[in-house]
């Protein structure tokens, strides 16, 4: 039987067990003969990752004659005029992500709006002197701090440029999905049926779920998600520095309550991402601006968490290390001090981790936070999503050039294997780091202190990170 | 039901290229074509090399390129199209495809499968027919003929090739994929593939009818074709994927070009007028 054959392959190709076929559509005004419009690809979710996915496909030469739809629940935002003040939601964009964005012309727009390249990352422990510095040997940028609004503006522009291929549905939330049975056995439509909140229906050969960590696509496809709520929230704010500086370093200090990061926006401004307990986060949000600024400076400068024991143990290890590798440790820089915070720029959001056990099914693929959610401490979140896009777009482009059915598991599985291989280790490592640094217990501090120092001294390990 | 018997049109004249015994074998599997992991999985994955082979060969011979539709404007005849496994990707690449197969159930499956995609439905036409039956109305009609995994099933290969020549435009391309007749192909192609591993449904192939590339080349060249490429193909049952290889001792693919009116690269004999008339006359009386 066909089910046995599928089992032999070792992977369930059938639509999820118990795939629900919804009752007959409530479409009294439509004749049975007129089928809903058929798209080659529908991307559900118009955030940074969903929009970039639609734009990447829209600009692909092998998709020149294809029909793509992007579903976004929110309204269309106009970005022609960037406000003078910085937005409090920023992302650290890796060079790889910048390459993806420039492959369909979006990076030029970002550069013409505003962004801040940084050359160096300094990461250190509040409980010891241990620190690790990342920088490139050549004078290349390590990464870029870009406001999310700037990225969205660039993406919207590039979507407009291919409006003949990519149709964006604003104010459109998908409320139901109907999955096809394996196409060899049915007389019913082989496509994914999508029902929107306003009653409109679409059909598609491939549905890409880019609808965030509470993905409806993932839930409706009954893909199991391993998730964990951290007992932490992130506090974001836009800060002004005490004095103008080159500000091309990203700072992160691991406090026992969680990491605090300062990401450069300009020579005088930086963005704050402070992961801490829910309670502390609420306190930070409600305190007056002066106290808030004091808390930040104290978090970066205070040695209150040091203990003599750790300090001496750390120092001993450092001297031992420098005997073996004299040039090992780099120069420690001092982080800038903060003078004031932009009013109304303080906000908080809860943190968690998540990973979907499958990224793909017949005619379905998950990208971005719908597939994986990480703690911001690694500054990787959106870069993983952009990495997903680069990989999926590559496989879909090849499939289109081969005349393949775009929803076929054959190439979707290749995407899943490549990305899971890449993502799982990073997500696991981020989770381990988060837990390792959430304590001031001496043995663990010593462990991570030495670990950090060794990592700092060993170029190959640093490059890998 | 799967075992519904259709009265197949009798194709018993000795000049026909259709073998009725062969047709019966495929009848039973007419509904299994589109299960990518089923009996025809090896044919599905063969698309990964035969479609790029056809596409790139044609692209290299033409100067036009339509973005997103590399085969736009190309008229292709898919002989022995089965359930349409090869017709559909060619249609998606922009070609106008006519798919013919003597088995009605295959055509029914193919028609049904393409019907849900309006683009494919308009680009592909299926017809239950043998090659000879369409010759009279399709003289020099097609830019390309693909006969993939077909020639090892036909009754009379020379007739088949002659008919291909007739429906092909001058300088048109003929693509064939088939299986060599060697000890290795018996062991791997029949014993292992059919009886042991079940890669191919048992009884599908008869080793006696496998075609060595030398024989195929000779038949092509003596019927107005110039053979341009012969490539060996290899199936890896563990990964379920195909790749190209030097040796043609198992599966292989051929690209041949029908000589133009002047007949370039003079190594072949152009078909004589009498041969052509005889073939049409035969086609008219077949079935």
What does this structure look like?
The complex is a heterodimer of chains A (465) and B (287). Chain A has 465 residues and is α+β, with helices and mostly antiparallel strands. Chain A has helices at residues 2-8, 48-58, 95-103, 106-113, 148-161, 216-220, 278-286, 289-301, 308-324, 381-401, 409-436, 442-457, 459-464, and strands at residues 38-44, 68-71, 90-93, 116-118, 120-125, 131-135, 143-147, 166-169, 174-178, 192-196, 201-209, 225-241, 249-255, 258-264, 269-277, 338-341, 347-356, 360-361, 364-366, 372-373. Chain A contains 13 helices and 20 strands. In chain A, the strands form 3 sheets. In chain A, strands 5, 6, 12, 13, 14, 15, 16, 17 and 20 form a 9-stranded mixed sheet that branches. In chain A, a hairpin with a 4-residue loop joins strand 10 (192-196) and strand 11 (201-209). Chain A is globular, with a radius of gyration of 24 Å. Chain B is built from 10 helices and 8 strands. Chain B has helices at residues 20-27, 41-61, 87-92, 104-114, 118-123, 131-135, 157-167, 183-196, 213-221, 273-285, and strands at 75-79, 96-101, 124-128, 142-148, 168-179, 225-236, 241-245, 251-258. In chain B, strands 3-2-1-4-5-8-6-7 form an 8-stranded mixed sheet. In chain B, strand 6 (225-236) and strand 7 (241-245) form a beta hairpin. Chain B is globular. Classes of the chains: A alpha+beta (465), B alpha/beta (287). At the A-B interface, helix 1 of A face helix 2 and helix 3 of B. Chain B: It holds the Pfam family Methyltransf_23. Chain B: InterPro entries: SAM-dependent_MTases_sf, UbiG_MeTrfase.
Average predicted local confidence, pLDDT of chain A = 84
Radius of gyration of chain A, Cα only, in angstroms? 24 Å
The biggest beta sheet of chain B is recorded as: 8 strands, mixed
Mean pLDDT of chain B, as a whole number?
85
> Any idea of the CATH topology of chain B?
Rossmann fold
| Rg for CA atoms of chain B | 18 Å
Total strands of chain A: the figure is 20
User: What is the first-to-last residue Cα distance of chain B?
Assistant: 27 Å
The total domain count of chain B is 1
Q: What's the CATH first level of chain B?
A: Alpha Beta
Identify the CATH architecture of chain A.
3-Layer(bba) Sandwich
Order of helices and strands of chain B: HHEHEHHEHEHEHHEEEH
Strand content of chain A: 25-35%
What summary fits the major beta sheet of chain A?
A: 9 strands, mixed
Number of helices of chain B: 10
Q: Which strand order spans the largest sheet of chain B, edge to edge or round the barrel?
A: 3-2-1-4-5-8-6-7
What's the count of strands of chain B? 8
Pfam families (chain A): FAD_binding_3 (PF01494)
Protein name (chain A): COQ6 monooxygenase
Cofactor (chain A): FAD
InterPro entries (chain A): FAD-bd, FAD/NAD-bd_sf, Ubi_Hdrlase_CS, UbiH/COQ6, UbiH/COQ6_monooxygenase, UbQ_mOase_COQ6
């Amino acid at each position: 039987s066909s089910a046995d054959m599928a089992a032999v392959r070792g992977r369930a190709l059938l639509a999820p067990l118990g795939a629900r076929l919804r009752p007959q559509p409530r479409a009294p005004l439509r004749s049975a003969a007129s089928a809903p419009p058929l798209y080659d690809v529908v991307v559900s979710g118009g955030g940074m990752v969903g929009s970039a996915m639609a734009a990447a496909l829209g600009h692909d030469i092998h998709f020149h004659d294809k029909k793509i739809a992007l579903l976004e629940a929110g309204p269309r935002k106009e970005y022609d005029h960037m406000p003078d003040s910085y937005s409090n939601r920023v992302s650290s964009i890796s060079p790889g992500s910048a390459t993806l964005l420039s492959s369909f012309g979006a990076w030029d727009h970002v550069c013409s709006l505003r962004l801040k390249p940084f050359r160096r990352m300094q990461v250190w422990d509040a409980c010891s002197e241990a620190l690790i510095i990342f920088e490139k040997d050549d004078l290349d940028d390590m990464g870029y701090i870009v406001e999310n609004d700037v990225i969205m503006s660039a993406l919207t522009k590039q979507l407009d440029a291919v409006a003949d291929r990519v149709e964006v549905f604003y104010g459109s939330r998908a409320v139901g999905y109907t999955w096809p049975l394996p196409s060899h056995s049915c007389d019913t439509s082989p496509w994914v049926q999508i029902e929107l909140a306003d009653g409109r229906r679409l059909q598609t050969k491939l549905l890409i779920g880019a609808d965030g960590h509470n993905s409806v696509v993932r839930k409706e496809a009954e893909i199991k998600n391993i998730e964990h709520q951290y007992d932490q929230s992130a506090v974001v704010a836009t800060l002004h520095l005490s004095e103008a500086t080159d500000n091309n370093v990203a700072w992160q200090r691991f406090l026992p309550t969680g990491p605090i990061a300062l990401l450069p926006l300009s020579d005088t401004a930086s963005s704050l991402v402070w992961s801490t307990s829910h309670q502390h986060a609420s306190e930070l949000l409600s305190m007056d601006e002066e106290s808030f600024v004091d808390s930040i400076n104290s978090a970066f400068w205070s040695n209150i968490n040091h203990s003599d024991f750790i300090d001496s143990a750390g120092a001993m290890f450092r001297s031992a290390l420098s005997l073996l590798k004299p040039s090992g440790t780099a120069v420690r820089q001092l982080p800038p001090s903060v003078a004031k915070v932009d009013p109304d720029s303080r906000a908080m959001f809860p943190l968690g981790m998540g990973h979907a056990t499958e990224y793909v099914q017949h005619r379905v693929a998950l990208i971005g936070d719908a597939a994986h959610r990480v703690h911001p401490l690694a500054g990787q979140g959106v870069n993983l999503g952009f990495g997903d896009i680069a990989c999926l777009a590559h496989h879909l482009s090849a499939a289109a050039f081969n005349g393949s059915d775009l929803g076929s598991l054959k190439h979707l599985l290749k995407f899943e294997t490549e990305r899971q291989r890449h993502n799982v280790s990073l997500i696991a490592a981020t989770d381990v780091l988060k837990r390792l640094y959430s304590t001031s217990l001496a043995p663990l501090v010593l462990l991570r202190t030495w670990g950090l120092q060794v990592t700092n001294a060993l170029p190959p390990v640093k490059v890998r990170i | 039901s799967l075992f519904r018997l259709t009265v197949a049109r009798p194709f018993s004249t000795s000049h026909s290229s259709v073998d009725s015994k062969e047709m019966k074998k495929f009848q039973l599997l007419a509904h299994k074509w589109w299960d990518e992991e089923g009996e025809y999985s090896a044919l599905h994955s063969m698309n990964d090399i035969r479609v790029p082979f056809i596409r790139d060969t044609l692209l290299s011979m033409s100067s036009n390129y339509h973005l997103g539709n590399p085969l736009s404007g190309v008229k292709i005849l898919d002989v022995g199209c089965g359930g349409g496994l090869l017709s559909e990707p060619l249609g998606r690449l922009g070609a106008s495809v006519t798919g013919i197969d003597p088995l009605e159930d295959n055509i029914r499956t193919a028609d049904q499968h393409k019907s849900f995609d309006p683009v494919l439905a308009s680009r592909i036409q299926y017809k239950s027919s043998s090659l000879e039956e369409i010759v009279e109305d399709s003289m020099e009609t097609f830019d390309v003929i693909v006969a993939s995994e077909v020639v090892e099933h036909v009754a009379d290969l020379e007739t088949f090739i002659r008919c291909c020549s007739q429906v092909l435009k001058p300088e048109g391309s003929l693509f064939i994929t088939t299986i060599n007749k060697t000890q290795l192909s018996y062991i791997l192609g029949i014993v292992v593939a059919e009886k042991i591993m079940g890669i191919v449904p048992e009884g599908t192939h008869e080793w006696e009818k496998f075609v060595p590339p030398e024989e195929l080349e000779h038949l092509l060249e003596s019927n107005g074709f110039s053979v341009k490429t012969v490539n060996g193909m290899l199936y890896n049952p563990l990964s379920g994927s195909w790749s190209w290889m030097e040796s043609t001792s198992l599966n292989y693919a051929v690209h041949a070009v029908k000589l133009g009116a002047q007949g370039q690269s003079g190594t072949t004999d152009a078909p004589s007028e009498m041969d052509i008339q005889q073939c049409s006359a035969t086609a008219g009386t077949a079935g």
